[in-house]
């Protein structure tokens, strides 16, 4: 478990410290909500916490992994643990009733009983109200762990009876590592990890032909706008406008454009930050030489302004023409 615990600590340092302190001070509560985006390690951390609570000889707030209880948690057949998943769209009242009856049976082993609700935000009303009664008056030593990506969708009366454990987004360095393990190139991994924090969504984007094309179009635009405003406008008419029809697509393309100019700022400042387009560094160096910080700041502002204009439903062709002229200004006087 050592290596696994280190991984979880790197992924969720604050959460792991919270849970280990709870265990260390013997302050285990009767209900927790683990709240965080997809891919933030909620299930793995829940498993760690369950093992820790049931382990026969934990050491330094880490489960031993070798006792009978640890092994049964690992293999998923410990009689004192129940897990509930939504049945179709919702977690239903019958599932909660079965759970409560299982938790109150005397046939279960001595010691703490634990139940885990996956997608707890999907409890329908009757199921939520039935669970609420059990949360208020659990029978014996019972701990509930509710996992959710939608904390606000859990009814307030349940939220107020649980300790809220907030999972932070994955550090970008770890996401980059995970993506490369999955065979995504460094340049594409660097770009998608700026667009999303979810490993699953990042992998989908990295393999999406349309996204690869969008990335190409944005980089082509950055290159041409430096050299020639007429060529840049041609790229807008021939590549940009036909490719990005939906508002969400234009929004994403403007974000990708913003990240390119942020890269140029980072290169100019000799910053050690992780770039969005590491494959373009040579080109960014050249751009950084021929533009001032003030111009770069104006260019970033111009892109943000275009994003606002998009929300105001400005004519898209006009919006892009204006943006090209403003981006070009940055290079004229250097």
User: Major sheet: order of its strands?
Assistant: 2-3-4-1-5
**How much of the residues is beta strand, in percent?**
5-15%
Stretches where pLDDT is under 50 for at least 5 consecutive residues are none
The structure class reads alpha/beta
Under CATH, the topology of the largest domain is which? Rossmann fold
Q: Whole-Å distance between the termini?
A: 58 Å
Q: What's the story with the biggest beta sheet?
A: 5 strands, parallel
SSE string: HHEHHEHEHEHEHHHHHHHHH
Can you tell me the CATH superfamily of the largest domain? Answer: P-loop containing nucleotide triphosphate hydrolases
Helix content: 55-70%
Q: Multimeric state of these chains?
A: single chain
Instruction: Kindly state the number of beta strands.
Output: 5
Radius of gyration: 26 Å
**Average pLDDT figure:** 92
Assign an overall shape: elongated
Please characterize this protein's 3D structure.
Its EC number is 2.7.7.7. InterPro entries: DNA_pol_HolB, DNA_pol_III_delta_C, DNA_Rep/Repair_Clamp_Loader, P-loop_NTPase. This is DNA polymerase III subunit delta'. One of its GO terms (cellular component) is DNA polymerase III complex. This protein is an alpha/beta fold and 334 residues long. It folds into 2 domains: 2-169, P-loop containing nucleotide triphosphate hydrolases (Rossmann fold); 208-332, Zinc Finger, Delta Prime, domain 3. 60% of the residues lie in helices and 7% in strands. It has 16 helices and 5 strands. A 5-stranded parallel β-sheet has the order 2-3-4-1-5, with helices on both faces. α9 packs across α10 (199-206), α11 (209-227) packs antiparallel against α12 and α12 packs antiparallel against α16 (316-332). The model has no long low-confidence stretch (mean pLDDT 92).
């Amino acid at each position: 478990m050592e290596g696994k615990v280190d991984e979880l600590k790197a992924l969720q340092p604050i959460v792991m410290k919270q849970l280990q302190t709870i265990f260390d001070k013997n302050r285990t509560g009767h209900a927790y909500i683990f709240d965080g985006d997809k891919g933030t390690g909620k299930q793995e951390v829940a498993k760690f916490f369950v093992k820790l609570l049931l382990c026969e000889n934990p050491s330094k707030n880490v489960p031993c992994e070798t006792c009978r209880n640890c092994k049964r948690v690992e293999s998923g057949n410990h009689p004192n643990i129940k897990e509930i998943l939504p049945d179709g769209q919702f977690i239903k009242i019958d599932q909660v009733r079965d759970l409560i009856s299982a938790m109150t049976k005397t046939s279960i082993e001595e010691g703490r009983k634990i139940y885990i609700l996956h997608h707890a935000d999907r409890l329908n009303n009757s199921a939520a109200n039935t669970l609420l009664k059990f949360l208020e008056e659990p029978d014996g030593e019972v701990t509930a762990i509710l996992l959710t990506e939608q904390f606000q969708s859990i009814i307030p009366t349940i939220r107020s009876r649980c300790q809220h454990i907030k999972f932070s987004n994955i550090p970008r360095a770890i996401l980059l590592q995970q993506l490369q393990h999955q065979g995504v190139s460094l340049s594409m991994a660097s770009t998608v990890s700026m667009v999303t924090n979810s490993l699953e969504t990042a992998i989908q984007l990295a393999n999406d032909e349309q996204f690869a094309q969008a990335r190409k179009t944005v980089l082509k635009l950055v290159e041409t706008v430096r050299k020639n405003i007429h060529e840049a406008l041609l790229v807008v008419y021939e590549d940009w406008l036909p490719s990005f029809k939906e508002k969400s697509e234009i929004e994403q393309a403007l974000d990708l454009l913003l990240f390119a100019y942020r890269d140029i700022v980072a290169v100019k400042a000799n910053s050690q930050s992780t770039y969005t387009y590491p494959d373009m560094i040579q080109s960014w160096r050249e751009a950084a030489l021929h533009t001032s910080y003030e111009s770069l700041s104006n260019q970033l502002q111009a892109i943000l302004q275009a994003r606002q204009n998009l929300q105001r439903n400005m004519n898209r062709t006009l919006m892009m023409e204006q943006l090209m002229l403003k981006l070009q200004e940055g290079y004229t006087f250097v």
